[in-house]
Amino acid sequence: MKYVFSGIQPSGSPTLGNYVGALRNWSLLQGEDRFCYYCVVDMHAITVRQDAEALKRRSMETVALLIACGIDPVKSALFIQSQVPAHAELSWVLCCNTYMGELSRMTQYKDKCAKHADNINAGLFTYPVLMAADILLYQTDLVPVGVDQKQHIEIARDIAIRFNNAYGETFKVPEGFIPKFGGRVMSLQDPAQKMSKSDPNPNGFVAIMDTPDVILKKFKRAVTDSDGEIRYDPENKPGVSNLLSIYTSFTDMSMEDAVAAFAGKGYGNLKTEVAQAVIDELTPVQQEYKRLLDDQAYLNDVIQSGASRAAKHANETLRAVYDCVGLHG
Ligand code: TYM
Fold first, then answer.
1. How much is the pTM?
2. What integer pLDDT is reported at residue 116 of this predicted model?
């Protein structure tokens, strides 16, 4: 059996970047010979100050969204991180096996410090260690993520290898799983920047919950260039290449076929076609999400059963780790 693990923070409203870079693959990776653990990482979210009630509500909303995006809570374990204490417990042991130097090189840490200069807490610094604990607890083979998490997967691998060398084979060394196109969806207003839910300009991102009208409007306003030719060239034509990447993800077309389909057409056509492909796929997701939110009893059952399935596997790994380092546990 192969194991898949991934996580999403319950902060802000998830975007097309989250969907294309991660959630779409989460659903596709569910298969006969793989077991998937999908986690709403509320403990990661508190590295930035949160309103308590809003955080609890958003964690449940994120669970509903994941089911609406195709995660089957019977096939996979879908759970909330703070309901499986082994994540925090392993994180401490791993902290004692991680160097300050390697953590201080993390680009996301540097970015977050710049953005939240009033709250540079130790959790922001040790964030990648908690993430390594998330992954390593489940003897994970594959971690489906966007490009922005690549450095965090690397450090999780480094920590696993270091621990195995010091204490004997304990962790499987995980691999990242990043889509070829769409691993880094860019802002529609500034294609040099990653699409982000915290973008102060709402035209820069498409939220998964945006209405069809809003989605169309945002794509129509997308920044492109002035040469008028539709081809994939992220360096010289980042705006058009971003639209093409989104289009191929939503239509499952190859990049060559997509470029051929737009030969001789204008940017206006590209924008409306991309918007339509996105709307067609997201409309049923939005309907299912709304239906699920009205069924809190079901969502509660899902997270309880997800947490107990996850805890079983996680506690086995934690026990082995405690034994290696000499903790009674
Ligand atoms: P988060 O919540 O920021 O994002 C969830 C997933 O969405 C991907 N993503 C993108 N992909 C492509 N283009 C974009 N513009 C874009 N924006 C976001 C992210 O790469 C991610 O896969 N630290 C993680 C959560 C986490 C985690 C883990 C992930 C905690 N523990 C263990 C994997 C394994 C995060 O903040 O993701």
1. 0.97
2. 85
